[in-house]
Design a protein that fits this description.
Blueprint lengths: L7 H4 L9 H5 L5 E5 L5 E5 L9 H4 L10 H9 L6 E3 L3 E3 L1 E6 L12 H11 L5 E10 L2 E8 L2 H4 L13 H9 L4 E5 L1 H13 L1 H6 E7 L7 H10 L6 E8 L10 E6 L4 E5 L4 H6 L21 E5 L3 H4 L6 E5 L2 H6 L5 E4 L2 H7 L1 H18 L16 H19 L4 H36 L1
Parallel strand pairs: 6-8, 8-9, 9-13
Antiparallel strand pairs: 1-2, 3-4, 5-14, 5-15, 6-7, 10-11, 11-12, 13-14
Length: about 450
């Protein structure tokens, strides 16, 4: 689809995240989702667009539709009695910490997200659940699927750091009546909310949205790189991204890879996965311009309890931010949850909040009119160390997206920027100590 027809890629300043809502809602079926050369999903022209209706741009979460998470959130939740709002979290009714003993071991954190989905089905609140689950297909290891039973939902437990898109399941929602619950990352939930404004069937049929805290998405190359680090030589047909080991804290989970020849390979977060994640390798460009940490358009948002008192428990613990009275009522019994101040949830995601506030502000400052309009005010950090850190990570991110060589050469190519970051970290600690000392003297 050309720029004159309102392509989501061009309208969104080349910041397509691959959610698939444009392809799902196109009245002419002119778009289909396909792999691009970066190992990301993007819309491709399946048939010529003849009307130029612009619907694809209206449902794109990065296209600058005039809506943001604040305006959407106010419309969805602003009138709910007892609702509160914080700039970090958006609207919220309540916040909890806990786990589901039944789901904890197979889930990414405490299993609460899977428990909620099963509860919605068993109580008849929804008829069908849309979530990400393994496919067994090496060309598309994970995908959104539609389930009608709690047993099926459990196949989708755990995280999937792998590209997925919604076009197929949203088309089924439009074709098959019923009440649906949908899980998704912040940008995907925002896209669904934008689509609901354009489509009555989606407004009526998507009854519950369950969000997941997100710092960044990853291309399929992230999985290929992690598999290479783990020593995989055969074709990967299955991945478990959040395996739990009883002798490790929750933060040092492992990835395990199943190959077609029946072998299984395992690698822990601290054996190179964390380095790739933290330095934004294989991260889509759109993630650089996201300011939504807590899936502000979702009825409830689940996340890991990255807090000192919980992180050492290898079994995992969940935090939940609730916006919908319906979901809050469903959480009242049958699960081990306790109230926790919302400030603790924000603290648990401090690193992600910093990236989507300070780092985003600098990127907006650098790119000026080329950048999308966001709620964060463009600003140049006063700290030169932070500016250099952001620049180094942005270079590595871009290099990782373009890289087409042998994985054995990949990390070596990152060496200069990794060395710069190590030097900056060595400087940062004494600088912070000096700043603290000066602050104490002023006090």
């Amino acid at each position: 689809m050309g720029a004159s027809m309102g392509s989501p890629v061009t309208t969104g300043k080349n910041l397509c995240i691959g959610c698939g809502l444009c392809a799902a809602l196109c009245p002419e079926r002119a778009l289909s989702m396909a792999w691009n050369r970066y190992g990301e999903y993007s819309p491709a022209e399946a048939d010529p667009c003849t009307t130029g209706c612009g619907l694809c741009a209206k449902v794109c979460p990065f296209a600058g539709s005039g809506e943001n998470e604040d305006t959407l959130g106010e419309r969805l939740y602003g009138a709910i009695p007892g609702i509160r709002h914080r700039p970090e979290t958006g609207y919220y009714l309540a916040s909890y910490v806990g786990y589901s003993e039944e789901h904890r071991q197979r889930s990414a954190s405490g299993g609460v997200a899977t428990w909620i989905l099963e509860r919605l089905l068993s109580e008849g609140i929804v008829d069908r659940v849309i979530c990400v689950a393994p496919t067994g297909d090496p060309e598309r290891i994970f995908a959104f699927r539609i389930f009608e039973s709690p047993e099926e939902v459990r196949t989708g437990a755990g995280s999937a750091y792998y590209p997925v898109e919604l076009s197929g399941v949203i088309r089924e929602v439009l074709a098959v009546p019923g009440r649906y619950a949908v899980t998704g990352l912040p940008c995907f939930i925002k896209a669904i909310r934008l689509a609901q404004q354009q489509n009555k069937k989606l407004r009526e049929r998507v009854a519950v949205t369950l969000g997941l805290v997100c710092g960044q998405l990853k291309s399929r190359r992230f999985t290929e790189y992690a598999a290479a680090l783990a020593g995989v030589r055969g074709e990967v047909v299955g991945v478990r991204y959040r395996g739990k080991s009883p002798d490790q804290p929750a933060s040092n989970f492992y990835f395990s890879f199943a190959t077609r020849d029946g072998e299984e390979h395992k690698i822990f977060w601290r054996e190179g996965i964390g380095e790739a994640w933290g330095n934004r390798w294989f991260t889509p460009k759109a993630c650089n311009y996201c300011d939504d940490v807590f899936a502000e358009c979702a009825d409830a948002t689940c996340m890991d309890a990255w807090l000192p008192e919980y992180v050492e428990d290898s079994r995992g613990t969940s935090l939940v931010l609730v916006r919908s009275p319906l979901v809050r009522e469903a959480l009242k019994e049958g699960i081990a949850l306790a109230p926790i101040p919302v400030e603790r949830l924000i603290q648990s995601q401090a690193g992600v909040v910093a990236v989507k506030r300070e780092h985003l502000a600098y990127r907006l400052h650098l790119n000026g009119e080329r950048a999308p309009e966001k709620r964060v005010v463009p600003a140049r950090p006063k700290n030169p160390i932070l500016r250099q850190e952001i620049a180094a990570k942005d270079r590595m991110q871009e290099f990782s997206r373009e890289f087409e060589g042998c994985w054995a050469d990949f990390r070596a190519a990152m060496g200069p920027d990794l060395a710069r970051l190590a030097a900056l970290r060595a400087i940062r600690v004494p600088v912070r100590a000096l700043q603290s000392l000066r602050g104490g003297r002023r006090g």
